UniProtKB/TrEMBL annotation, chain A:
Taxon lineage: Bacteria, Pseudomonadati, Pseudomonadota, Alphaproteobacteria, Hyphomicrobiales
Organism of provenance: Ensifer adhaerens
Family: Belongs to the binding-protein-dependent transport system permease family.
Entry protein name: ABC transporter permease
Keyword Acyltransferase: no
All residue ranges annotated as the ABC transmembrane type-1 domain in the record: 176-371
Automatic annotation (TrEMBL), chain B:
Record protein name field: Amino acid ABC transporter ATP-binding protein
GO MF term (any one): ATP binding
Gene3D superfamilies membership: P-loop containing nucleotide triphosphate hydrolases
Protein species of origin: Ensifer adhaerens (Sinorhizobium morelense)
GO biological process assignments: quaternary ammonium group transport
Annotated signal peptide: none
PROSITE patterns associated with the record: ABC_TRANSPORTER_1, ABC_TRANSPORTER_2
Nuclease listed as a keyword: no
Domain ABC transporter: 2-236
């Protein structure tokens, strides 16, 4: 058998080698704020663990460099990632002196580089395998399930990120709830309002250009500025509209954050509805009218189903965008994972920043994969010709 | 019966259809021909009120077509267009079932109708019913388009360049199939085309449109012998006239007494086919046999030459 080299694999192997042998694996700090000391894999782990991790990484690098079957690449990438995940937990136990609750152990650059290199290997292998949407979602569930199991087992409890969490478990879940509410609630509102508006824009050409222009302009306002702009009118409503304050409408807090996210969400939903409807074949529309469908029947039975994948694409853009943007809501007291990020920045406590950032990234990633799968399932494959 | 009375359609300043009056007899095929932009589509779409006329009146079986809502009117009138207009997200069976479903037929009746139509259009219901339009060839899509238009058994079928997207061989077959189906259901068909060959092949009567007006409304034979205007003459094509004239008549009406040598021709063949056979085989006359194989007489080169000159 002739051995051939995979170009991306060379880069992955180089990254992995750097991450494993040159960069530090974990950082040890005597307490939460002092500067950390770097530890390599052999220093951070008991010898057996260090050997296991290095063996996995070397095996993965070899598989990556050579042209190997995608399923093998995927398997070695996932098992090495799992070894790393368990290894970093072991490092925390190994580095923390007994009975010491001030010492902090966190992943260092080498760990992140390895994570990135192996993630790249896994993503590349997955792309080449072209799994069906359902399989992709199952994969996602598997990975999330693994992370959940590791968290539950207490393997990571020694890591500083989890120590930050331990002190804030209650607020963490409260802010998580607010974050999801902000992102999903504003999306739901934008969908409920945006789709009918999109339909209207599609039917009334003059409305379309004006409205899309306004929504476009809103998108260009930076988020902080938009929060600021909203403070005055919402404050006014809170004072002058009876009952408004009672349901939580105030110049600062969740209300302006919600309204801002809603406004940002409108353009992608409306624009994609318009584009989707415009893409419905003219003949299908003409035939639908010609054989006696009412306007509503045509909209519900022909135009909307045909435009649906495009509308769903708009919803995907909005959801991923909102999960990220909701982080900023903390700045005006809107809550969400941003609370930890900004507190962490204030206290120069990197672990606290991560406590806000990591769940946000996981959430956005999950949303993207799930919606991409939904979009693919909703899009008929018109090129695939069935054999007669 | 479709009675079109003084129909006019204006868009702003431009008159697209000008004062058109036609009476279309039941169970016939009427073909509207004309150059592109002459108003054929607009005239056709005023019959089922996809376009509302500026003035004039259209009656279907004596009833004003404005006496019921447009969508209800359209459910009673078949409509098929170029490029078939099938719904890409619905199966062939669902596409055909569209109007019966709108009309609230029960499931069993719809299924039976879909199977009947697919069989009639030479598509196996079990194989083709569950397919999506993109899984069919162009000719099959077109047949499904017509089947969908006929699903609710309309008395009238409107067709706008239905065969425009098909290649010549499939188109000829589709035209023959359409005539067979028209006989079967006794449908009144109004068909728009810019292809004169198609018009002469299908039409009982042809309406020629020029700049929004109907300049001649006549049977193909009348039109060939006495074109009303220079425009009609140029549309027919001066060089094609004798051949078109022979093409629209069957050998049966050109039979002369007597016999001839060689292979016989069927009395159902067109006179043009007879001429072609005569010229190709170098004979002066052919024996003619009826559908039951009985010898009827002969058809001669001289006789056909007389007919081709419009002197029969
Ligand atoms: N909705 C409309 N608005 C303005 N002009 C139209 C409209 N529909 C058709 N026309 C014009 O009417 C003329 C006739 O169109 P049509 O009936 O489609 O012709 P044909 O089918 O014979 O090609 C064309 O010049 C076309 O541009
Ligand atoms: Mg036309």
């Amino acid at each position: 058998m002739q051995l051939r080299v995979d170009k991306l694999g060379v880069i992955i192997a180089a990254l992995a080698a750097y991450g494993a042998f040159l960069a530090p694996f974990a950082t040890f700090r005597a307490n939460r704020i002092v500067a950390g000391e770097a530890r390599s894999i052999s220093e951070a782990l008991p010898p057996v663990w260090a050997a296991i991790i290095l063996l996995f990484v070397i095996a993965a690098a070899i598989v990556a460099v050579l042209k190997t079957p995608s399923s093998l690449r995927l398997a070695i990438a996932f098992s090495t990632l799992a070894a790393l995940a368990l290894g970093i937990g072991a490092a925390a136990g190994h580095l923390t002196p007994p009975e010491n609750s001030y010492a902090r152990v966190s992943p260092a650059s080498g760990f992140w580089v390895l994570l990135f290199a192996l993630g790249l290997l896994a993503a590349d292998a997955l792309t080449r395998l072209r799994p069906s949407p359902l399989v992709r979602v199952l994969f996602l569930c598997g990975v999330l399930g693994f992370i959940a199991a590791v968290l539950m087992s207490g393997t990571w409890d020694g890591l500083s990120l989890l120590k930050e969490y331990a002190g804030r478990a209650d607020t963490f879940w409260a802010e998580a709830g607010k974050h999801v509410m902000l992102a999903l609630g504003s999306l739901a509102a934008a969908t409920i309002i945006g789709i009918p508006v999109g339909v209207l824009c599609h039917r009334v050409t003059r409305l379309r250009d004006g409205l899309l222009g306004v929504l476009n302009a809103i998108q260009t306002i930076p988020s902080i500025a938009l929060f600021g702009i909203l403070i005055a009118p919402l404050g006014w409503i809170a004072i002058h509209v009876p009952g408004a304050a009672a349901i939580g409408i105030r110049g600062i807090g969740a209300a302006p954050a919600f309204v801002a996210l809603f406004l940002y969400s409108l353009l992608p939903v409306v624009a994609n509805t318009v584009v989707g409807l415009a893409g419905v074949p003219r003949e299908a529309n003409d035939a639908a009218r010609g054989i006696g469908m009412t306007d509503f029947q045509r909209l519900a039975g022909i135009e909307f189903p045909l435009a649906f994948p495009v509308i769903l694409t708009g919803i995907r853009i909005v959801l991923v965008q909102n999960i990220g943007l909701a982080t900023i809501a903390a700045l005006i007291g809107g809550g969400g994972f941003g609370v930890f990020v900004f507190q962490g920045v204030g206290q120069t406590a990197m672990d606290l920043v991560l406590l806000g950032a990591v769940p946000t990234v996981v959430l956005a990633f999950t949303a993207a994969i799930v919606l991409d799968a939904l979009i693919e399932m909703a899009t008929p494959n018109r090129n695939q010709v069935q054999s007669a | 019966m479709i009675e079109i009375e003084g129909i006019t359609k204006r868009y702003g300043e431009t008159t697209v259809v000008r004062d058109v009056s036609l009476t279309i007899a039941p169970r016939t095929v009427t073909v509207i021909v004309g150059t592109s932009g002459s108003g054929k589509t607009t005239l056709l779409r005023m019959i089922n009120r996809l376009v509302e006329p500026t003035s004039g009146k259209i009656r279907l079986d004596g009833e004003d077509n404005r006496s019921l809502p447009g969508y209800e009117l359209r459910r009673r009138i078949g409509y098929a267009i170029q490029g078939h207009g099938l719904f890409p997200h619905r199966t062939v069976a669902q596409n055909i079932a569209t109007v019966p479903t709108l009309l609230g037929w029960d499931r069993a009746r719809i299924d039976a109708k879909v199977a009947e139509l697919l069989t009639l259009f030479q598509l196996d219901p079990a194989a083709f019913g569950p397919r999506y339009p993109h899984e069919l060839s162009g000719g099959q899509q077109q047949r499904v388009g017509v089947a969908r238009a006929l699903a609710a058994e309309p008395k009238v079928l409107l067709m706008d360049e239905p065969f425009g997207a098909l290649d010549p061989i499939i188109r000829a077959k589709a035209q023959d199939d359409l005539l067979a189906i028209q006989k079967h259901f006794e449908t009144t068909i109004v068909l728009v085309t810019h292809d004169m060959e198609e018009a002469f092949h299908l039409a009982d009567r042809i309406a020629v449109m020029d700049k929004g007006e109907v300049v001649q409304y006549a049977t193909p034979a009348e039109m060939l012998v006495k074109p009303a205007t220079g425009f009609v003459e140029s549309l027919i094509g001066a060089g094609e006239r004798p051949f078109r004239l022979l093409a629209i008549e069957a050998v049966a009406s050109a039979v002369e007494p007597g016999t001839a040598e060689g292979e016989a021709i069927s009395s159902a063949a067109s006179q043009r086919e007879a001429l072609s056979t005569l010229l190709w085989s170098g004979r002066k006359a052919l024996p003619v046999v009826g559908p039951d194989g009985v010898l009827l007489g002969k058809v001669s080169l001289d006789g056909l030459a007389q007919r081709a000159a419009g002197r029969s």
